Amino acid sequence: MQGIMEILSFLKDYLVIVTIVDIALIGLPIPVFALKRVKERFMIEEENYSENQGKCECAGFSSAYVYRHLGLEAKGMDTYKEMPCKGPKGYVYCRGIVRLARRHGLKAMLRTGNLNALKNAVARGNPVIVMLRSKMGSTGLHYVPVVGYDEEYIYLVDSVGSNRNEKNPHYNRKLSIEDFRKLWNISMIRQPLYFNLFFEIHK
pLDDT tens-digit profile of 92-124? Predict the structure, then answer.
């Protein structure tokens, strides 16, 4: 019994420490949950374009896509180079996306929520950046803008060529709702409280 109590105490301390580190590096997401969708389907159709990223620059490329939508001139690699809050391998922590958007005079918020909350954010008319697993079963993470949805699919503009499965003027990747939910749940032992993350960026 004493051994079990020691293990539970260790796990509690571990989770507290990990959560504090996560908040410092990633930021504290603001929860938003919605029971209903404001629209059954929605697609952002303003003119924009996708770019091809290299190894770990998805934060810059997804942010640049949103900036262009909001009327700013932006290229993915230039935006990535500006990004603060990079990890040792070049990966950008969530806090970096928010900080850089604010530097450009935009309003930016890191959120966590349910699918209806995400859809409602997209239906406001701006691309919404989500953090997904890079592929099923992977612990690698990937930022990508969501530009539309309907009853069956989520539509994205992905900067990784191998992820693209559509040729459409408004999106280049679509995921079934089921697959999107699986990829969107990024909670893991080192990030126990972080799941269903998305960024709202607007003027």
Answer: 999 999 999 999 999 999 999 999 999 999 999
CA torsion angle 118 69 86 117 (round to 10): -10
Convert the pLDDT of each residue in 31-43 to its tens digit: 899 999 889 999 9
Q: Strand pairing partners for 155? A: 148, 174
Looking at CATH, the fold of the domain delimited by 2-202 is given as: Cathepsin B; Chain A (3.90.70)
Q: Is the whole model's pTM more than 0.70, yes or no?
A: yes
DSSP class of 128? E
Query: Which is it for strands 107-113 and 30-32: parallel, antiparallel or unpaired?
Result: parallel
AA identity, residue 136: M
Domain ranges of the chain: 2-202
Strand-strand pairing, 107-113 and 128-133: unpaired
Fill in the amino acid letter for 174.
Answer: K
Residue tagged 């280049």 (tokens): 172
